[in-house]
Design brief:
The chain contains twelve helices and twelve strands. It is of the alpha/beta class. It has three domains: about 45 residues, no CATH class; about 140 residues, Response regulator (Rossmann fold, 3-Layer(aba) Sandwich); about 130 residues, Rossmann fold (3-Layer(aba) Sandwich). The strands form three sheets. Strands 2-1-3-4-5-11 form a six-stranded parallel sheet, with helices on both faces. It has a four-stranded parallel sheet with strand order 7-6-8-9, with helices on both faces. Strands 10-12 form a two-stranded antiparallel sheet. Helix 5 links the parallel strand 1 and strand 2. Helix 2 crosses helix 3 and helix 5 runs parallel beside helix 12. The protein is elongated, with a radius of gyration of 27 Å.
């Protein structure tokens, strides 16, 4: 059945389309008699406003884009949950795209969202992203942008993050205070700021407690995976058989360390202590349970959406938005893989 249009109502009542539109919006310059006639006919014909036309007139689509590096991780799953629920509360739909930590795919996804004319974009950078020209295009096209978790200091936009340096510092210090001295760090790729800040936090905790930093105690997990954690632990123990602790970039990598220790009858935490990062869903279910840094993923998603909606509102009102940086607190959860 063909949808009824404003033009059809106007032709039946022999008035202008503008008058019909104003009558439905209760404009004061339309007489009560005309308003009643328009509304009665609209109800009789089951007229419904065209959402696409409304979007064009209002300069909005009521759709926001979300780009995340991966979905296998509980942290990002929690972010999606927070983003979608909060966006729905404000009447927005969310297009969720997963870059698979690929710079090239991330560029394509940014272009896709811009072509779709979304009202705003939320981005957490891929691990392989070093150049940010494609992110700059979002700002250049005046599309509201909020970055979260994995950000770039090169991009001037609102952000929702944690203090990765502080979290890594506290995690490493927990290991030191428990008696560990030969602490390996399985770090992430050099691109994302999160990896760099966690690495610096690890080094500064060693420095505070006058423990020499050895570059050979640092291994890079290029894929940030369980497999990397397993292989790097094997290599680290070949290089340094007397290590007594491992601080990992994420729980996924820590799960690989955990698996290696179990497979080779290395007692945790008696021989090796392990701390991960993110508080992945299964970290508490491992045996022994994994110590980790708890990241508030759900809250991060909610706060990021609220910041984005504020910026969308400012754009609609032709007001200049104020860039904001929200830093959410973290805490180290000491479980069974630490002394």
């Amino acid at each position: 059945m063909q949808e009824v249009t404003l033009k059809q109502i106007a032709e039946i009542l022999q008035i202008s389309v503008t008058t019909v539109s104003k009558a439905l919006k209760d404009y004061k310059d339309v007489s009560p008699k005309t308003k009643a006639a328009v509304r009665n006919l609209a109800a009789k014909l089951n007229y419904k406003p065209n959402p696409t036309a409304l979007s064009l007139r209002n300069r909005e689509t009521k759709i926001i884009g979300l780009i995340i590096p991966e979905v296998v991780h509980h942290f990002f799953a929690s972010i999606i949950h927070g983003v979608v629920l909060e966006a729905e509360n404000h009447g927005y739909l969310v297009i969720t795209l997963i870059s698979n930590d690929s710079y090239e795919l991330e560029k394509q996804q940014v272009a896709l969202l811009l072509d779709k004319r979304v009202d705003g974009i939320l981005v957490s950078l891929a691990g392989s992203t070093v150049h940010t020209h494609h992110i700059s295009q979002i700002i250049k096209k005046e599309v509201p942008l909020v970055m979260f978790d994995k950000i770039s200091d090169e991009i001037r936009c609102s952000q929702v993050i944690i203090d990765d340096w502080q979290a890594a510092f506290e995690a490493t210090e927990k290991l030191i205070l428990s008696g560990c001295r030969k602490i390996i760090h399985l770090k992430g790729p050099d691109g994302p700021k999160t990896s760099l800040d966690r690495f610096e936090g690890y080094k500064d905790a060693l420095k505070k407690h006058r423990i020499p930093f050895h570059p050979s105690y640092v291994y890079t997990s290029k894929n940030v995976s369980i497999e990397d954690g397993y292989k790097l632990t094997e290599q680290a123990l070949k290089d340094h058989p007397d290590i007594d602790a491992v601080f990992c970039i994420t729980d996924l990598v820590a799960a690989g360390v955990h698996k290696y220790c179990k497979n080779h009858q290395i007692k945790m935490p008696e021989q090796i202590s392990i701390i991960g990062f993110s508080n992945w869903l299964i970290s508490e279910l491992m045996s022994p349970s994994l110590s980790t840094v708890d990241q508030p993923g759900y809250e991060m998603g909610i706060r990021a959406v609220n910041l984005l909606i504020q910026e969308i509102g400012s754009k609609k009102s032709d007001e200049k938005s104020t860039l904001q940086k929200i830093v959410l607190p973290t805490k180290v959860l000491m479980r069974e893989t630490t002394r």
